[in-house]
Amino acid sequence: MFEEFENKRRKQFSSMKSLVDYAMGFIIILFGLFFLFRSQLGNIPINATLGEPDLLEKIFGGLCLLYGSWRIYRGYQKKYFR
Fold first, then answer.
1. pLDDT per position as a tens digit, 28-47
2. Full-model pTM
3. What is the pLDDT at residue 47?
């Protein structure tokens, strides 16, 4: 009986952790896209204050895309208990 409870708890934890990984991955990918394509968004007020994106911002945007993709992949795999 205790093993069934532990398995149920692990499954609930795994599904909640997976949902968090999906959400955070999506948010991080949005930040990466913002940093990569900020200059092409048009006349938004933040472009006037920040100016054109430099190389460091583009590198950070690419890293955000990679990390966000990895978070979504990790949520898909659901390998939290090893």
1. 999 999 888 887 776 666 66
2. 0.78
3. 63
Half-sphere exposure of 31 (CA within 13 A, CB side): 15
In tens, the pLDDT along 49-69 reads 666 778 898 899 999 999 999
| DSSP per-residue letters across the chain | -HHHHHHHHHHHHHHHHHHHHHHHHHHHHHHHHHHHSGGGS-S-HHHHHH-S--HHHHHHHHHHHHHHHHHHHHHHH-----
Q: For residues 6 and 14, what is the distance between their CA atoms, to the nearest angstrom? A: 12
In which residue are the tokens 């583009």 written? 58
For residue 71, how many other CB atoms are within 10 A of its CB?
20
Taking the CA atoms of residue 33, residue 39, residue 45 and residue 46 in that order, the dihedral angle to the nearest 10 degrees is: 60
